[in-house]
Design a protein that fits this description.
The chain has helices at about 1-10, 45-55, 105-110, 125-130; strands spanning about 15-20, 25-30, 35-40, 65-70, 80-85, 100-105, 120, 140-145, 150-155. With about 160 residues, the chain is α/β, with parallel strands linked by helices. The longest helix is centred in the N-terminal third of the chain and has 10 residues, at about 45-55.
Length: about 160
Amino acid sequence: DNTIRELMIDRGYDINTFKKKENIYSVTSISQKCVILCELDIKLKKNNITDIIEEYELENNDKLILIIKNRINISNDIDVNIEIFSKPLINITKHSMVPKHEIVNDDELKELNFEINKLPLILSTDPVSKWYNFKSGNICKITRKNGSIFYRLIK
């Protein structure tokens, strides 16, 4: 429960809307609903996912997060954003060796003097990028414990 709450807080969801029903969690933000299926040991099929999408009235902009033990293939004809995390879900940002990561806002970006396309890359599939749901094209500011700051382009 706590790790799922941390994931939602780190992604900017209103934790006051956090609800749990068995192994299904739901939370909302101003513009998006998110449903999390946690620790499923069953083999998920398209029908199971479609049923959940209908039950929680998820739409195109909404998100479905699956925390599962087994690998799964999701067909492309589902209109909801689906993310998959391996079980057990671990908050990688709490590890002592992981520096602070944050997205650079537009105002801060204007003050910086560098060419965005020449920045080193960090993949959107990187565990920290995946945790925060960083999107391709965003600029990530990484602040190490010694105070040094690095910037990366999310790809």
